[in-house]
User: Which sequence fits this backbone?
């Protein structure tokens, strides 16, 4: 086993252990760049979109229930506040995923640039 030949965004060497036959970890392997991009894109688009659609549906149903009197206005207000907090958490989750994707892409670009400059 050996260490990955890639570099972190800071310029420090990657510390991940890889089989000697590979040379790069998953995050730095130039042959897997497209695979990583697709995976990050897919992950960034999945759960938050479903969560937002679900909360929108629930808020619409809640509004209808408050308006027709089947749900108390106070209860409706509290539930809508809780759903709003949930939406903010989903928003933060999405921003973190986007940031991770950007960092990963930047690492890939830096590794490619370093390889070009070395070669």
Assistant:
């Amino acid at each position: 086993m050996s260490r990955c030949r890639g570099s972190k965004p800071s310029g420090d060497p990657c510390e991940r252990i890889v089989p000697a036959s590979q040379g790069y970890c998953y995050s730095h392997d130039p042959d897997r760049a497209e695979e990583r991009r697709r995976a990050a894109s897919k992950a960034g688009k999945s759960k938050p979109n479903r969560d937002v659609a679900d909360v929108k549906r629930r808020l619409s149903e809640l509004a209808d229930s408050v308006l027709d009197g089947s749900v108390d206005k106070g209860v409706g207000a509290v539930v809508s506040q809780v759903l709003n907090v949930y939406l903010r958490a989903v928003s933060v989750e999405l921003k973190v995923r986007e940031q991770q994707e950007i960092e990963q892409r930047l690492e890939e670009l830096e590794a490619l640039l370093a390889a070009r400059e070395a070669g």
Remarks:
- Residues 33-118 form one domain.
- Residues 55 and 83 are 7 Å apart (CA to CA).
